[in-house]
Amino acid sequence: MTTTTTSSWTKRHILSLETFTAEEYETLLETADSFREVLSRRTKKVPALQAQVVANLFFEPSTRTRSSFELAAKRLSADTLNFAGSSSSLTKGETILDTAKTYVAMGANILVIRHRQAGVPHTIAAEMDRLEGNVSVFNAGDGQHEHPSQALLDLFTLYQLLSPSSPHQFLQGKKIAIVGDILHSRVARSNLYSLTTMGATVHLAAPPTLLPREFQEFLGEKLVCHWQVEPALTDADFIMTLRLQKERMSEHLLPSLREYHQQFGITRDRVLLAHPHVKILHPGPVNRGVEISSDLMDDPELSLISQQVTSGVAVRMALLYLIGTSD
Amino acid sequence: MTTTTTSSWTKRHILSLETFTAEEYETLLETADSFREVLSRRTKKVPALQAQVVANLFFEPSTRTRSSFELAAKRLSADTLNFAGSSSSLTKGETILDTAKTYVAMGANILVIRHRQAGVPHTIAAEMDRLEGNVSVFNAGDGQHEHPSQALLDLFTLYQLLSPSSPHQFLQGKKIAIVGDILHSRVARSNLYSLTTMGATVHLAAPPTLLPREFQEFLGEKLVCHWQVEPALTDADFIMTLRLQKERMSEHLLPSLREYHQQFGITRDRVLLAHPHVKILHPGPVNRGVEISSDLMDDPELSLISQQVTSGVAVRMALLYLIGTSD
Amino acid sequence: MTTTTTSSWTKRHILSLETFTAEEYETLLETADSFREVLSRRTKKVPALQAQVVANLFFEPSTRTRSSFELAAKRLSADTLNFAGSSSSLTKGETILDTAKTYVAMGANILVIRHRQAGVPHTIAAEMDRLEGNVSVFNAGDGQHEHPSQALLDLFTLYQLLSPSSPHQFLQGKKIAIVGDILHSRVARSNLYSLTTMGATVHLAAPPTLLPREFQEFLGEKLVCHWQVEPALTDADFIMTLRLQKERMSEHLLPSLREYHQQFGITRDRVLLAHPHVKILHPGPVNRGVEISSDLMDDPELSLISQQVTSGVAVRMALLYLIGTSD
Lengths: 327, 327, 327
Fold this sequence. Notes:
Three copies of one chain form a homotrimer.
Chain A: H1 22-40, E1 53-58, H2 63-75, E2 79-84, H3 96-106, E3 110-115, H4 120-131, E4 136-142, H5 148-162, E5 175-179, H6 186-197, E6 201-205, E7 223-226, H7 230-233, E8 238-241, H8 247-250, H9 257-264, H10 268-271, E9 279-281, H11 294-297, H12 305-325
Parallel strand pairs in A: 1-2, 1-3, 3-4, 5-6, 5-8, 6-7, 8-9
Helix pairs in contact in A: 1-5, 1-12, 2-12, 3-4, 5-6, 5-12
């Protein structure tokens, strides 16, 4: 572990990628890389956060994401506390902010927060700053707003694959297609910031109900919107598929899963439109045969899904380390 | 850590404060004080209970209390096992005693038990003593009976605030008001023992349905009952508010939350009746605007709620340490 | 810890006892014995699986079995991750195999799997072998098929009690009665393999609806079926009772719990038929007064139930150690 890369880190919280600078992405990638190296050793632990407490406050359930944060914290030698919304005292009338403050009063140094309402982590972070308790807040997904660590693990997965000599603008010249329910996806929103900042051009593809025309203005020339999948895939270097929430059907935003797959599903035929070395990403869990045909998902030549999960632990270690050791 | 203070400790179990002696309160306060000092260090762990197993058997759910016990155990280097009533084999027909014995047979040294029936921890402790397995039982709340560690963290919070030269009778001359559903509160019951033993005079205030006249005989001259809140608050040094269970309404013991707040809620006006340096405690989670007005709860000059949570970890470390290292 | 005993271990997975050899049983018993000795020390931990990750994937809930695996893993210094079916992403459309792969991609080295469908652990193990990731799968109960670690802890409990000079055929000449719902019991199925391989003769007793005539052909001369309990108990050295699932009543396989107890329940009168030193086992949790009368269960001269639970931790440590350190 080099510490030189982290001396410039100033963020106490990980809330949103909207304000991430190119330098911060670069520091994160280099730090994650060194943790990836730690994970390949026989002894996979470092004492970086020894005696610190990471509290996972998941007001919206997610076993796989909580496990990833939990393992990242344990490998930094932190202690972890888990709070799940369902078994909580929230049903007893306490506010979310009260719950957060309770865990801080117990000794939590980092609060990892998932909530289905956008902005909850920001509100808690603002209160923590006001109280000057040196507590960090880590947004693990807030409503349809952002999911920074998911986008950063996607970025790190590409970084590992491309293995550039420097992280600086390492996606320059790359075309990345993001396909699916853009409108409701916090993963897509976070990815737009990170991918374009690192130099990529992003092509979004979705039915008009899931990709309103206003989206085009979001990030200017680095962003292109399509209401058909084919132009987004053509010559793409990477295809990012998004998870389709089945609730969209009951909201009449989509006719049927079958029809969605016919129009926007990633199939072997459609992959032929892309760059010969194209790779496919998905934040998981996958609805097999909906967002992507089942055989593509299992094709190690095409799918980066497993690498994304592995990157998740390294990236979360890096982020916890950066916010947990900055002043 | 000094061990001299603990040489006199003889209790194997923490079941009730009814039998706690003044000396035991003093030992506990001094031990908690030294753990409070441990928690302020950079390395917050001590190896006191290394390789011991603390099993949290919560037959009644409580995330915040379980987390506090879990963190206390981890900071003593114990391993923890969590059992939650809902996912239990109790639904399969096993008795509570069988569950407790199973965890002991696995290797648990300390059973932390919460159950909505009064007396369950005592029954389990009696069986453990009969089996001579050197196992400790810790009552984390049994029905409407007792919640010793909550009362002890209240006591420790006052001890820290007053910072007396000795814990001996350190509440002598203090007036403490306890306001709310006294009848159903295990927290109030435990506090009556600890506060009066340490010298305080306790004034209880509640509607007659929640504070029967028989209560007066409970502890004699150290205890005064009121069916209005104002005389209890007048010149009080500390105000302890109790959580109001919403079930009380459906049981027709209370007309409405609004009316309760009007008659017994702690408001800024009512606080003016108390001693100028009065502080407010609440075991949490708070029903904001019911037991206490929301702005008082957030006023750091008045509220000790956050300190209570912090004290909870130190007090539970001390208690686990005392029972886990006695013979 | 001697390592000589384990040099011959070749199994990567613990899926079924059907293919266990006598040598493997002997290695397991000797390894569990050395861990039993570790557990009797003041410091109960060994660094054998340090930095390894054991993921408990319990698609079917079982608090006691999960706690036993969790404690075994912690005492080998492994990190643990818990996944419970109910809070899972399975409801989101992911396959079980996808879930398993996700935990492996995060870094899990051993997957402990419980599922109500027979064969799930085998399917996952086959996929893990195909992927050549050096991951072990441990069947913690699959449908009505097998529950290897339960049968092995039964075997180890008998081994400890009999304390033979060598584990070789140490049950030779012993009569063991297994009483209860044989047809649906994965515990019984696994025990048939282990007990007969180690030399015992096994007598099964159950109503015809729960013990079909075809069972007789299962293991030849080492196995005798009875549709009454008395001949099975006569001169038995050990009585293994099985848990009766209450669902059997609604499936019309049993008239009533009371009638079952009258016909097949282990009572003090029936125990008189057995060998004077007979001991009783039960995998737990017990339906008191159904499979066994309540007083027998609590009689330390007769019941091995508590020892079985203790053996469980040592046996699971041994199995995790053997599969976690083999190449």
